[in-house]
Structure prediction request, 289 residues.
Amino acid sequence: MEPISGTVQFLEVIKKEGSTYHLKTEDAQYIRMNASASENEFDIGDEVSAFIYPNRTGELFAAPIVPTASVGQYGYATVTEVNRDGAYVNVGAPRDILIPWIDLPKVKDVWPKEGDELYLTLRAEHDNQLYGRLISENEAAERFTPIDQEKFKEMKNKWLEGRPYRLLRVGTFMLTGDGHKVFVHESEREAEPRLGELKKFRVIGINEKGEINGSFIQQAYKKMDADSEKLMDYITKNGGSMPLTDKSSPEDIREAFNMSKASFKRALGRLMKEGKVEQTSKETVAKNQ
Prediction:
């Protein structure tokens, strides 16, 4: 008999005992289903479409749901808990599914957090227990929806949303809700996102395969405007001064404004050029205060 843990099966109701239905698969495997798993009641002989999942001891149960992901089927699953064992996700089943720590990034800072969504499938072990398996690069390449030049012209410089499925030093690989594949080079990000984090990106190009090249960074002139406003707002609210200059450390700048030192210097230089601020040896002050 074929293993059925983690799959959706059509089962026949053969009897009901108390709050438990007894079901049978087409190849005569017998599965139980708690009546509380469904708002509907079933009669003997009814056919039920149900997801098959194990309890903690490996005994199989049925739940009349359509999971977001199953064995052989990919989909998004929401992260419900993260601990040293890995990340638990909800595919709609009565039990959450573990993605083992060994399958997550080596750097825990980019592990997913509760509420993030991961694109995955399920795998079943010999004891029926289920685990999540993240989509691989080869599988993503087979499943993504390419875009052509006409579509790119419509999308260029627009901000879209996607979720990272693969994180490398060279860049971030993402999928959008429409199934488009996105690559953000390391030079187009100021910080590395989490796996499964909902992330906005700007469309800046496409490659020959129809994959999007994206950026987490605003166009330079718009970003400088926003950064300059952030600095000026801080100075105004802080009595006309800021305890940072273009000589300050990158760590102090990032802690204060969550921006790189290069972005800080460009924004500060713009304010100085416009005659709004000046620097002393220890601080930046607003002019005409």
Notes: Residues 218 and 243 are 26 Å apart (CA to CA). The longest strand covers residues 8-17. The chain has a mean pLDDT of 93.
